[in-house]
Amino acid sequence: MKIVICGGGTSGWLSALFLSYLAPNNEYTLIESSSIGTIGVGEGSTGLLRDVIRGNIFDFQLKEGDFFKKTDATPKLGIEFKNWGTKNYISPIDGSTTSEFEIDFSSLVAISRGDGPEFSSRQGVRAVVGNIPYRNINEMWNNNLGGAYHFDGVKLGDYLKEHMLGNRDIKFIDSEIESIESKSNIVSEIKLSNSETISDIDLVVDCLGLDSIFNKTIDKGWVDYSKHLPVDNAIVFRQKNENISETNPLTDAIAMKNGWMFKIPVGNRYGCGYIYSSEFCNEDEARKELEDEGYNITDSKKISFKSGRLKEIWKGNVVAMGLSSGFLEPLQATSLHTTISHLKHLARSVVSCDPKKLTTQASGYNTFANQHYDSFVDFINLHYQCDRKDTNFWKYMTTKSKTQKVKEIIDICKGRLPFRQDYSSFDGAASDLWAATLHGLNIIKKEVGKKQLNYYYDILDNRDTIESEYDNNRRYFMEVENVETMKNFMENNYG
User: Fold this and answer.
1) Strand, coil or helix: what is 361?
2) CA 252 from centre of chain
3) DSSP letters for 465-477
4) In terms of Cα–Cα distance, which of 199, 207, 169 is closest to 11?
5) Angle 362-382/334-350 helices, nearest 10 degrees?
6) How do the domains of the chain map onto residue ranges?
7) Contact 18, 344 (CB under 8 A)
8) Were 118 and a residue from 13, 14, 90, 326 both cysteine, which residue would form a disulfide, CB within 3.0 to 4.6 Å?
9) E strand or H helix at 194, and its extent?
10) Per-residue model confidence as pLDDT tens digits over 63-86
11) Stretch 202-227: mean pLDDT
12) Helices 153-167 and 64-71 sit at what angle, rounded to 10 degrees?
């Protein structure tokens, strides 16, 4: 089978990694133009990227030590939400210690005691306390404790490219795409600006991003998410990290007047960006707000985007991947998580598949991918249901933007913490991450948590077990001694 990956970067080289590993007998060509510039502001991941790097999904022969040094990566234990409501909160990267149960007991204990959502998670406690036992880079986390990364997105693409060209039989072409020959959504020929022509194509993986030429050639349609996620612009910039040795292993998500701002520790700097809605403010107003907050944005860049996805992510013999398939605002690092989840599904679809029957895989793939995107819209929208109503943007988000699922969940929270099956998932946000957000925003009240917890204690007789496990986890990470802190970790890796 002849598979052509159009576009490099993180999504392109991840596509090459997954497909060539699971289906090594196919012929792979990756087209990437070095003349197209990119900006590496800083990104965060979920634990799914860690699973890729550490070989927990498949053994891709990647080395975490190399990854940290070559991508300016730093550890990520959670996201601290600032000014989203009356109280700041930390959403742990790994969720709670009882996420496998129908009801999240650890979150219920934290809610009933008045603790923050970070105390339902071992990583969360570590993050808030600051005692991070990184004894060396190869033993950073064990498989039970999770964790994720902050990194330079451009350097991650370069790191994956270096690995693939050194370890896999991939034909790499440095060129722009000049034109595409297609009929009935089947691409038969791709002409390149270097005068080369690629033909006899079985499958195209489109990783060209928001302005993909394939989205203009293949009739896929568009599903608009802007009613629920109206932010559509970003001003991205860098800030020097003057105190790298004391860097907090958290992404900052700071609510602003017309959106929110991320601040991500990457190497010796912070990658920053103000994500705002053009419906409620213009670029000049957004820039002034940043300057009024004390940020130096002289060297900055504006990026415009649309929140939405393709109606058919796989159509004909073209599969859109990464930003080509859709885009949601960067809250909770859903973009890269989505790419990895979709690649796992795509790789399974092409393994040992007859090329003549490959397009029959599209329907099942689209069902999965569409539901995956839609479930993340619900989860992200939930974060805006806070008690802020100080600007027109926040008035709209808290009164008119709610998805149907979010309305249902908020209504459920009047009487109980939702069960796992109440949430939309589809390999998206796990139930314990929903619970952490509901908890952090005070949507689920302390008295409701107490009442529900006592009900379960009465019928299950498990009070001592649940309470002691919670206390032991909390105590262990608050009292741990003789550990290397984030200061040691950063000094060892960045001097």
Assistant:
1) helix
2) 14
3) HHHHHHHHHHHHH
4) 207
5) 160
6) 2-42+152-224+308-377
7) yes
8) 90
9) none
10) 888 898 899 888 888 899 999 988
11) 92
12) 130
- Give the SS3 label for residue 126: helix
207's tokens: 């990783």
For the segment 390-418, what is each residue's pLDDT rounded down to a tens digit?
Answer: 999 999 999 999 999 999 999 999 999 99
**Are residues 198 and 189 in contact, defined by beta-carbon separation less than 8 angstroms?**
yes
CA distances from 224 to 105, 258, 329 (A): 36, 20, 13
Cα 39 from Cα 31, distance rounded (Å): 19
Cα distance between residue 104 and residue 118, in whole Å: 14
Residue 239 near residue 220, CB atoms below 8 Å: no
State the CB neighbour count (10 A cutoff) for residue 358. 18
Q: Is the pLDDT of residue 494 over 60?
A: no
* Fold (topology level) of 2-42+152-224+308-377: FAD/NAD(P)-binding domain (3.50.50)
Dihedral Cα 89, 462, 454, 78, nearest 10 deg? 10
CA–CA distance from 113 to each of 108, 312, 348, 381, 448 (Å)?
9, 46, 45, 27, 11
pTM comes to: 0.92
pLDDT (mean) for 466-486? 67
Structure tokens at 432: 């314990």
